[in-house]
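Archive entry. Fields below.
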Amino acid sequence: MSSTIIKVRGYHLDLYGHVNNARYLEFLEEARWAMIEEKIDLGELKERGIGMVVVNINIDYKLPAGLGAVLQVTSRISRVGSKSATVEQSITEKRTGQLIAGALVTFVVIDINSQKVKTLDESLRKLLQMFN
Amino acid sequence: MSSTIIKVRGYHLDLYGHVNNARYLEFLEEARWAMIEEKIDLGELKERGIGMVVVNINIDYKLPAGLGAVLQVTSRISRVGSKSATVEQSITEKRTGQLIAGALVTFVVIDINSQKVKTLDESLRKLLQMFN
Amino acid sequence: MSSTIIKVRGYHLDLYGHVNNARYLEFLEEARWAMIEEKIDLGELKERGIGMVVVNINIDYKLPAGLGAVLQVTSRISRVGSKSATVEQSITEKRTGQLIAGALVTFVVIDINSQKVKTLDESLRKLLQMFN
Amino acid sequence: MSSTIIKVRGYHLDLYGHVNNARYLEFLEEARWAMIEEKIDLGELKERGIGMVVVNINIDYKLPAGLGAVLQVTSRISRVGSKSATVEQSITEKRTGQLIAGALVTFVVIDINSQKVKTLDESLRKLLQMFN
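PREDICTED_STRUCTURE:
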């Protein structure tokens, strides 16, 4: 399981003084990039012509996070299907341990040149299962 | 049903030249604010001490949108429960009619002073059903 | 002079309840895209292999803008030099007429293929002076 | 001098595959928050009713930064006047040492309650000079 720390700053907040809904999606994306580069050379993926495209995000907002909160985002690939896979991500306040948000992010793998969705064959499934 | 037009600009895009996942949530929020102010005086809501807090967003990304795309976001409240309600939103490319993204956004109504969730009583249900 | 209207929403604000500094740069960029497409076919520019790259932004923040403010962004090219040109932009609250922010945005024209800066010759100067 | 590291991700980029102009202002703000909390207890400032408001940003964009770039933002207060002070910030690519952007950010100190600008008296000047 991969883990990323983000400290909440003034520019992350909205009129209620809480991290805005859209900003959480950037936090989740930040954590997914970190997860991937822990184990994969992004240049290699690009050379193989492989891209990942998010097709669904389902996010629960549990508690608001304010200025100075220290958020820990954990990420792991929880499901690898034949056509798509799912990243399970949770955001907790590191000091209190409280769950701030939880998300399931489903993506497909595409061939960058043809922009077509690739079937998740044995080689791709192995790649993705590294992040379990 | 409420409708908002957004033209895709360079700063909306990400490394693939497509509108970024997080940015769509801003487009959806823009459209919800527009929907609300068509029928309700926001100042009045504030005086009544009523706030709305999003608790879940479930968004399907169907097709990418690039520079110059003209996006039409439609919004309506499709469900009013006893504790929460759901806004159904879709984003289509206005000229081609293609569906770009669809989302269900679930929210609760809170009392701003106590920060407690309010039961959706008859008066609140009527208010929300105006957006059906 | 080109003019764009932007209504301030909750997601534009920061912890003080005011539009965040970085967000104003998006408002300015939005207005520059609108200015350009009033008079130029962006596709034509692309075909000619011309791109514009911002090299300096100098922005004065005069007054804060809060939820519901209606901002009018005006833009015109105020200077065309031999190597660079400058867009003068101002953001006012439409209803009160108060100046919220003023900016000078300096850009160069590049050849998209070579990524080299182009001298602003007679033909380019004429193009840019249309926005005076 | 304070230093912050930011890795460029896909969601930071715009249609040219480069970090967007507005996003750099978030990077600068991130680095200013980090600078401040290295030496000052933000809670204490709040108790004293002191806020800082940016009145001018002058930023030079020198070189584009793309996916995977590792940006180092350095910040120090380079000028303390009687009414305003200036933070000098630079963004370099850590591995190549190339200057990506340089900025001067001028701010005033306000009394949060009255929202009035405070003269920078001896006590405030000493506080700000810690960041020289």
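CURATOR_NOTE: Chain A has a mean pLDDT of 93.
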